[in-house]
Write a structure and sequence with these properties.
Helix content: over 70%
Strand content: under 5%
Radius of gyration: 20 Å
Shape: globular
Number of strands: 0
Oligomer: single chain
Number of helices: 13
Number of domains: 1
Distance between the termini: 49 Å
């Protein structure tokens, strides 16, 4: 029970900090929508974000790792846990881990090399803006290295390649979505509230993918992923309504979130090659990094307020 609670806590923290960007975009677009459609998004969004995405997506990923038993038996195994399926999943676990690990590691490196930031950790300070081109070289080197190390297992190689492809496909979409948000979030746009709702739902789904992939660093238990990510998604919904503008002012919070994502990706890749990493380490590392940057950002915010008086 204690182990499960620690895992759920880590999942909640990870989901919340990983979804801050999504909540900021949501808040900008929601401001241009009528009260009626805001309520529809917040209620309907809970169903899609919590139950559909965070319930079905991890289940689908597990099913794809052992498709021969069928989706229905995978769904039943979540509740009943028959020993033969548990053994098969244990054998195939590395397929999920390396795919998710590659995705998360690229997510961190993309932020480190290509996105604007206030440096806090040593890697943030070492990587300069003009180093951005090296992200693509590093991504290629990582993929080739992992394919070579996993050459004895076709499925592990395929999962690593899929994780790589999923990252570039998803972030190609996100870049386009960010450009669209500038137009959709403008109060004078002629788009209907329904169109904005569909845009937010699609964007929510793409952002949710990061959280689901990261959840496998904490646990491969679908019920725990559903509970932890689901609660995290509800917290983000509350932040979207009440306090996202304040959270966005925390200067280094994203540094903690993204660095923890990089570590989680590394943990997943190492676990896929058989290295044992206790389940509490991802939780503690995430809470430590996010907590540290939250505290430092909070102090910086207070000092700036004091200086302005």
């Amino acid at each position: 029970m204690l182990s499960s609670l620690i895992i759920i806590l880590g999942l909640i923290v990870f989901e919340v900090v990983n979804s801050v960007d999504n909540a900021i975009v949501n808040a900008h677009v929601l401001k241009t929508m009528s009260v009626k459609w805001r309520k529809i998004f917040l209620l309907w969004g809970i169903f899609t974000a919590v139950f559909v995405v965070r319930g079905l997506l991890p289940l689908t990923i597990v099913w794809l790792s052992m498709p021969e038993i069928g989706f229905w038996r995978v769904l039943k195994s979540v509740i009943q846990s028959p020993p033969e399926i548990a053994r098969l999943f244990e054998e195939r676990e590395g397929i999920i881990l390396i795919g998710a690990g590659v995705f998360l590691l690229l997510l961190y490196l993309h932020w480190l090399f290509l996105e604007k930031k206030d440096p806090y950790f040593i890697p943030d300070k070492l990587i300069k803006p003009h180093y951005g081109i090296w992200f693509f070289a590093l991504a290629a080197i990582i993929l080739v290295t992992l394919l070579y190390l996993a050459r004895s297992s076709f499925h592990i190689m395929l999962a690593a390649a899929i994780g790589n492809a999923a990252f570039f496909l998803l972030y190609g979409f996100k870049e386009q979505a960010a450009k669209q948000e500038e137009t959709i979030g403008h109060a004078k746009t002629h788009l209907s509230d329904f169109s904005k709702l569909m845009f937010l739902e699609l964007l929510d789904t793409s952002f949710s993918f990061d959280g689901v992939m990261g959840a496998f660093a904490f646990t491969t238990s679908i019920p725990l992923i559903f509970i932890g990510n689901g609660i995290g998604a509800l917290v983000v919904r509350e932040l979207t309504i009440k306090g996202i503008d304040r959270v966005a002012k925390y200067r280094w919070l994203k540094n903690g979130a993204m660095t923890s994502i990089g570590l989680l990706g590394l943990f997943l890749i190492l676990k896929s090659f058989g290295l044992h990493i206790p389940e509490y380490i991802p939780t503690f590392s995430t809470i430590f990094l996010v907590g540290l940057t939250f505290w430092k950002s909070h102090r910086d915010l207070k000092n700036n307020k004091t200086a302005s008086l």
